[in-house]
Amino acid sequence: MDFDPIERYDEMNSDEILRTQERKLRDYLRYQLYPFSPFYRKLFDDKGVDVNQINSVKDLEKIPLTKKEDIIPDDENPKKYKDLILQPDLQKIKQFWPRSKQFGLKVKDILKGNIETALRDEYYPTFMIATSGTTGNNVPFMYTRRDIEQFSNIYQSLQKITELDPEWSVINVFPFAPQLAFNFIYFVNLNSNIRMFHTGGGAVTSTKKTLEIIEMVQSNIIFGVPSYVYHLLRKAQEIDADLSSVKLVATGGEKLTKSTRKRMTDILVERGAQDPKLFDMFGTTEMRDAYPECMPGSGIYHIHPNMHICEIVDPETGKQKRPGESGALAVTNIDGRGSVVCRYLIGDIFEGGIQYGRCPHCGKEGPRLVGPIGRIKDYSKKINITKVKGTQLNLNIFYDLLPTIDGVDEWQVILEKRNNDPSGLDILKLNIAPKKGTKKKELKERIISKIVDTVEISPVVDTKYSRDELFEMMGGKMKADRIIDARSKD
Ligand SMILES: [Zn+2]
């Protein structure tokens, strides 16, 4: 299947890349997004956006931002995710495609047997990941066969950017989950000659077992969520594990702070690793993509210019920031099938904004996002998303969940760092006042199993409180502080 490979952008200078991207943007909006995306067709019609007027990155400002709350299902449209999927048919093609483009399809038709087969290969969703969220609030993002080929091509480029030696062996400790991180690495594996072992993360393979595997197969690279990798390294210290084979750690899924980087590097060196490198990757399920740092610790993430246009904007007005100016990331597909987005507000701020021209770190010419990266606080407060172990957790669900568990009288949720260590794993702590006559041990088990089932996080449950005590602790007489994020923010 024909797609636009990322390699050809390596040969272009900054201006050529921008011109190519804008040409792709024009075609994509006119011949893919507007005709085939029910969500954007409606949005553009409602807001009076004429796709024929959008010719440049600057022109994107005429299109409203898409926010997380715009794509989550609601009562009116419980299957809203479907509206983000490109859905062509012959009638739309005849209406929107110029004759020359229709002719291309005719050629495929002759080669493939019929147009339906050609369209199916290119557009039919075959693979799905989903954003995390409460039950019913997850938004599935689809890939088609063409996407799988194209995304494999860009995922593979990770190997080149991180200078990953094909002889090295990799251990992937990202959790098995229908989100981007694990699947991203799995696709790299399937489409390269790199040898990988996927543990499924700490919930599937114990940390001790994972360390045994690292020692046994002499893993050179560890992929994982920062807080879990850190936990793994701490365990290595504890049991005196040998990490001399490790050359590179690549993290994603949550913020990697400077202090965590430093602590990880120190432990690696202490455990025998020589000059270990730490890469961070920025990616989200909605992008279906992740951008690795071009140099370890640079905080610079080159976008994949064949797939996306990235803008740094004011999240309220949608107005673009100047290069280098801090702002929120909005992503627009200029290629890809399946679920696609336009000016989608990811929910993160890049303090260094966006840069063009030659990269001072790696010399590449493509546009790039510059950290540090932070959450859009107000925005995430609205839907109360907090990152725990690399998954997004909507703390609001506890309001619905905990009171329905048999035996719970009063409750409080606290997110904190284990041992108050700012680089440590997060703990989800539940303070519970049991109803009178409830067996505490059984209640505790009930709560843990319910929370694990719902949010895939194992909580620490304390049932020692009486209702009055807990109520007092929450400051309930004024306004109950039921949910507290007590993790330090560095
Ligand atoms: Zn660079």
Mean pLDDT: 87
Supply the CATH class of the domain at 395-485.
Answer: Alpha Beta
Q: What global shape is seen?
A: globular
Tell me how many strands there are: 21
What class, by secondary structure content? alpha/beta
What ligand species are in this complex?
Answer: zinc ion
- Gap between N and C termini, in Å? 46 Å
Share of β-strand residues: 15-25%
Strand order of the largest sheet: 4-3-5-6-7-8
CATH topology of the domain at 395-485: GMP Synthetase, Chain A, domain 3
Number of helical stretches of at least 4 residues:
15
Helix amount, in percent? 25-40%
CA gyration radius, whole angstroms: 24 Å
* Quaternary structure state of the chains depicted: single chain
Low-confidence stretches: 377-386
Biggest beta-sheet profile: 6 strands, mixed
Q: Architecture of the domain at 395-485, CATH level 2?
A: 2-Layer Sandwich
> What's the name of the CATH homologous superfamily of the domain at 395-485?
ANL, C-terminal domain
